[in-house]
Amino acid sequence: MTRYLRFNTPLGSMYAVANGDALAGLYFDGARWAPPVAGDWTEDRGHPALAACAAQVTEYFAGKRHAFDLAWALDGTPFQRRVWDAIARIPFGGTLSYSELAAQAGAPGASRAAGAATGRNPLTIVIPCHRVVGAHGDLTGYAGGMARKVDLLTREGVLQESLI
Prior knowledge:
Blueprint: E1 2-9, E2 12-19, E3 22-28, E4 42-43, H1 48-61, H2 78-88, E5 96-97, H3 98-104, H4 111-119, E6 132-133, H5 146-155
Parallel strand pairs: 1-4, 5-6
Antiparallel strand pairs: 1-2, 2-3
Helix pairs in contact: 3-4
């Protein structure tokens, strides 16, 4: 049974999704590739993984958390999971290019495929795909929208507001 929890952030409403005891997704409402909340899903404010996700994301936005400690179980191809694992290792305040990401995922030269996998990241912010940038540090797409990507990178000190 799929359970979910909707909560508000400074960048809009989000919802976390769990299958069983683990986190399976975290999405901004209306983000590209975000699955719609289905009629057979159950909102569950008491679900431990969902409550922990909402609490940790709230701490992140309050500037009190730079890393997440959440159990997740993600559906994806082996390549997607390698890309998501590599993204999860990008530290707060850091960035990684798509070509570097592809190499870390074991597929040097496959930056376009790494980009496609990045766009399908089911755990936005927790797996910080907003930290993946173009070859020269230029900002590229973000499933949650470019304004959110800019905001997240500014919060993390990667971008200076005066340069945006």
